[in-house]
């Protein structure tokens, strides 16, 4: 099977795991001459529309600037667009992938296990279960679960 990858949706929460996943997305995009949409989902909050005192930006504007900075943090010739949405992260990621006809979703994992995983859940896991396109989950090497904790 020869998979033609033209559009990659790379979800980020700005964590080190997300940065590591973004590096993978860039590598895959370069290999396949694909474009990347770097996507961040803000969960609804009473604070998201509040003004930030220091520079009179809304939280959404601040996150938008942060996303652009994140996209430019690794030099690349890849075509990269950025977008922010508000909602439940895994739902918005899957909806966006379908809307842009993404060939691949790339998302970092935090390596939570046990009770933390059960209580917090995993956005990556929910994306894998519900997405209609392939999903690549990338675990940061510093967050690997050791054999003694499994």
Mind telling me which CATH architecture this is?
A: 3-Layer(aba) Sandwich
Number of domains: 1
Shape estimate: globular
CA radius of gyration is 16 Å
Fold and architecture overview:
This protein is an alpha/beta fold and 150 residues long. The chain has one domain: 3-Layer(aba) Sandwich (Rossmann fold). It has five helices and seven strands. It has helices at 16-32, 59-71, 89-99, 114-120, 123-130, and strands at 7-11, 35-42, 51-52, 57-58, 80-86, 104-109, 135-139. Helix 3 (89-99) packs parallel to helix 5. The radius of gyration is 16 Å and the shape is globular.
Record the SSE blueprint.
Blueprint lengths: L6 E5 L4 H17 L2 E8 L8 E2 L4 E2 H13 L8 E7 L2 H11 L4 E6 L4 H7 L2 H8 L4 E5 L11
Parallel strand pairs: 1-2, 1-6, 2-5, 6-7
Antiparallel strand pairs: 3-4
Helix pairs in contact: 3-5
For the structure shown, list the relevant keywords.
Rossmann fold; 5 helices; alpha/beta; globular; disordered C terminus; 23% strand; 37% helix; 5-stranded parallel beta sheet; two-stranded antiparallel ribbon; 150 residues
In short:
By secondary structure, the chain is of the alpha/beta class.
């Amino acid at each position: 099977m020869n998979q033609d990858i033209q559009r990659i949706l790379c979800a980020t929460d700005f964590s080190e795991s997300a940065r590591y996943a973004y590096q993978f997305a860039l590598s895959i995009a370069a290999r396949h001459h694909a474009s990347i949409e770097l996507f961040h989902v803000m969960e609804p909050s009473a604070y998201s529309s509040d003004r930030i005192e220091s520079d009179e930006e809304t939280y959404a504007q601040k996150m938008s600037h942060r996303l652009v900075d994140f996209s430019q943090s690794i030099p690349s010739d890849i075509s990269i667009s950025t977008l922010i949405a508000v909602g439940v992260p895994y739902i918005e990621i899957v909806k966006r992938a379908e809307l842009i006809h993404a060939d691949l979703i790339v998302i970092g994992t935090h390596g939570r296990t046990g009770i933390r995983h059960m209580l917090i859940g995993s956005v990556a896991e929910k994306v894998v279960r519900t997405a209609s396109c392939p999903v690549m989950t990338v675990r940061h090497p510093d967050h690997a679960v050791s054999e003694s904790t499994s």
